[in-house]
Amino acid sequence: MPAAPVRSTTAATGRNVLSGVLLGLGVAAFADETIFHQLLHWHHFYDRSTPAIGLVSDGLFHAFSWFATIASLFLLADLRRRAAFHATPWWGGLLAGAGGFQLYDGTLQHKVMRLHQIRYHVDVAPYDWTWNILAVVMIVAGAVLLARARRRPA
Amino acid sequence: MGYLFAATLLAAGFSYGLGVLTVRRRGGWWPARHSASWAAGLAAAAAATTGPLAGAAHHDFTAHMTGHLLLGMAAPLLLVLAAPVTLALRALPAPHARTLSRALRSRPVRVVTHPVTAALLDAGGLWLLYTTDLYPAMARHPWLHVAVHVHIVAAGYLLSAALIGIDPDPHRAGRRTRAVVLVAFLAAHGILAKYLYGHPPAGVLPGAGRTGAELMYYGGDLIDLALIVAFCRQWYAAADPTRRDRNRTPRIPAVPPARVPWRLPAEFRAGPGTDPGSAAVTGLSSAELRS
């Protein structure tokens, strides 16, 4: 299929970042659901002490991340179709999106809204630190890639 | 009561078949996948309202929830993808088709087919059913049972049609509005499922309530997957940079598309000077081979 001319590089970069961020968000949420909820059974499906705000936040994020996962893949297909895919901003967006979701989940949802904890019947502090430090590492790595993509536009 | 549902579904299948025959007799064409979608939708609705599953749903919350997923989500999605309104417009005699198209443009239809209205009707109905005394009352009053089932399938149809409908809709909401409503509805469905996990409807034992709620949550996600993919595919087709006659061709062709012999996609076809086998075997696109 002949590739259509790309209107502007910045628009293409923006769409690369958007596709990456959405997929990162989706992958982080998906990993959370499959590994921690279903395989390890560390997280609770529903904690009787979960306040309403936690339930609403979790529901909105679950729905949005499900939509984002699929939409980001269609966006990626569209970028490939237009020959406008650039790996650096896309991976930068993906890491930033995944880290951003994990940090939100680990701080606001687990701690402030008390949706559920990472693990029960153990000292949860090391788990919390690992969880949130990993999140920050992903955000920093993503930011580095995004800065590099901005300095050297593809 | 199963007979009432069975008769209605049979009539729906019969009418659709008659429509397809009428279109074909006039020399027109109707894609088989739409007919298959209609049949599958009716089958899903039949499984939920007649037979063993419907019988078990009276005392088993998990069976009830399976029926809810089939009747309220799977069946409407499949029925919408069958494009029954387009078929009716093509099969009906011209005066009747004009009346139908006028009715579709009328204000009440416009209001009720707006994604926000449809989502409120659907999600609101579910919250009322499971968090009030409506659920236990449904088992006592047969007419209420029928009314709830009709509402569930009708609201599901309206919502699916508003979000991913392929039938003509003169006032279709924008893609952004539809995406927001889609996510909000998925969230409302998921939140209700988690709420039911902790607070099952009156008369449902906690254990059964938990199994049913998890089924509602994960089963809902599975059907949402189909809904989201359908939504994104429509965007992908509309955003095709090589498509010029964007508004001219009807969504459902009236004549069979010309048969094009299948060829390997351009990026897999080997260019001049390369080994013809290597690109196809490694599965790499030409762009990746170049870099």
Compact description:
The complex is a heterodimer of chains A (154) and B (291). By secondary structure, chain A is mostly helical.
List its traits.
heterodimer, A: 154 residues, mainly alpha, 4 helices, 74% helix, 0% strand, elongated, disordered N terminus, B: 291 residues, disordered C terminus, membrane (chain B), transmembrane (chain B)
Structural overview:
The complex is a heterodimer of chains A (154) and B (291). Chain A is an all-alpha fold. Chain A is built from four helices and no strands. Chain A has helices at 9-39, 52-81, 87-112, 125-151. In chain A, helix 1 (9-39) packs across helix 2, helix 1 packs across helix 3 (87-112) and helix 3 runs antiparallel to helix 4 (125-151). The longest helix of chain B is centred in the C-terminal third of the chain and has 33 residues, at 206-238. Chain B has helices spanning 2-25, 32-49, 51-57, 61-81, 84-91, 94-105, 107-112, 115-131, 134-140, 142-164, 175-198, 206-238, 276-282, 286-290. Chain B starts with a helix and ends with a helix. Chain B is mainly alpha-helical and 291 residues long. Chain B is built from 14 helices and no strands. The model of chain B is unreliable at 276-291 (pLDDT under 50). Chain B is globular, with a radius of gyration of 23 Å. The A-B interface holds A 1-2, 4, 45-46, 48, 50, 55-56, 58-60, 62-64, 66-67, 70-71, 73-74, 77-78, 81-83 and B 179, 182-184, 186-188, 190-191, 194-195, 197-198, 213-214, 217, 221, 224-225, 228-229, 232-233, 235-236, 239-242, 265-266, 287.
